[in-house]
Backbone:
């Protein structure tokens, strides 16, 4: 381990057969080649964002679940952390062409959060809202409900730092990392798509790293 970077990966990713039975294994980690086209592996965890790290008071942090749901609700950080927990082993692919392999995320499954709210039949999309100056990202409901998707407060057994999106960040491993909203504060269910900050700026509306959905057609 690099003493100056506690997130530096000195070794190789954990073999899947060594993982505890309660860990959800993201499907992409089972690929023979885990690096998508146009990507290269990093052993670090680079810090990237649109506006810099916002100042978030953990005591006043809350998550709102709203829109096309039967029962909108809000959670404090303490309430969030009492919900049933999951661990997800997944790779992490940034649209800026780096991939960090073998991350262990822990938090609350997106399925648990939306089951609590009750999703209305007409809901088709999710908009994730962040504390970062109103930043949002959009994704299909089906992707948000992938079995390896969660809202995470731990990474590799440690609390997620503010620079990396803590106290709680989204994590949707099968899409490029900008779809995994840092500093998440809201989950909105919608009948129609609502492109977010980077999508309006020219990034692809979906973001599949294996088909290099990096930019919209006019921007590529």
Residues:
């Amino acid at each position: 381990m690099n003493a100056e970077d506690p997130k530096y990966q000195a070794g190789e990713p954990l073999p899947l057969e060594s993982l505890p039975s309660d860990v959800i294994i993201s499907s992409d980690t089972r690929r023979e080649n885990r690096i998508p086209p146009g990507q290269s592996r990093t052993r670090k965890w680079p810090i990237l964002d649109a506006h810099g790290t916002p100042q978030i008071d953990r005591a006043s942090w809350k998550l709102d679940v709203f829109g096309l749901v039967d029962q909108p609700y809000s959670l404090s950080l303490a309430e969030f952390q009492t919900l049933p927990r999951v661990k997800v082993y997944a790779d992490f692919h940034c649209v800026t062409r780096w991939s960090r392999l073998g991350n262990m995320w822990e938090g609350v499954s997106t399925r648990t959060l939306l089951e609590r709210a009750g999703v209305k039949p007409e809901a088709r999309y999710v908009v994730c809202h962040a504390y970062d100056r109103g930043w949002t990202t959009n994704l299909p409901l089906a992707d948000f409900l992938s079995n390896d998707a969660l809202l995470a407060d731990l990474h590799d057994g440690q609390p997620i730092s503010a620079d990396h999106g803590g106290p709680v960040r989204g994590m949707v491993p099968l899409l490029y990392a900008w779809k995994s909203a840092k500093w998440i504060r809201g989950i909105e269910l919608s009948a129609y798509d609502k492109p977010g900050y980077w999508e309006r700026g020219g990034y692809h509306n979906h973001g599949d790293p294996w088909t290099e959905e990096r930019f919209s057609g006019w921007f590529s």
